[in-house]
Amino acid sequence: MFYNGWVQIPYIVFMAALFIGAVVLVIILARLMLAATAALQSYLRVQEVKMELLIADGTDEPQL
């Protein structure tokens, strides 16, 4: 029932490769989430500054 030959070595290598691949994918996903969060915060700050400038201008016509 148990194999004592060369079958276990490729299986262990394959499982290690799958584990390393999963860790790499999690790291890439986390970095993408951080980059997207930073981009969203930057965009929201730009919109906030635009609104502050429009309010400070005193006119009703947006000049973007």
What would you note in describing this structure?
This protein is mainly α and 64 residues long. It has one domain. It has one helix spanning 8-57. The N and C termini lie far apart (74 Å).
Write the layout of secondary structure elements.
Blueprint: H1 8-57
Distance between the termini: 74 Å
- How many discrete domains? 1
Structural class: mainly alpha
Overall pLDDT metric: 87
- Portion of residues in helices? over 70%
The largest sheet is:
none
Gyration radius, in Å: 27 Å
Q: What tags apply to this protein structure?
A:
64 residues, mainly alpha, rod-shaped
Quick summary:
With 64 residues, this protein is mainly alpha-helical. The protein contains one helix and no strands.
